[in-house]
Amino acid sequence: MRACAPDGAMSAGSVAMVPRSASRRAGEPIIGAHRLRHTAATEILAGGGSLAEVAQILRHHCESTTALYAKVDRAALDLVLRPWPGEQR
Q1: pLDDT in tens, 10-29
Q2: How far from 4 is each of 10, 11, 71, 83, CA to CA, in Å?
């Protein structure tokens, strides 16, 4: 926390260091900004959010970029997956 707001935007290095420093202070394994973004994207999708919503939250211009963060819930996918012709399920 700061008593005075910063003069400008945070640098990429600063953004990366915030979760690293916080996890270190909490005595937890080091967690980076990428993992936080990935986890947020996955949780939003698991909660019923759309890829477009995730893209907006992560501030991506292209959903294909967002898809790199948003992993598919394989258990949910199994519910709608059709078997390969000739395959028993």
Answers
A1: 788 888 888 899 999 999 99
A2: 14, 17, 38, 59
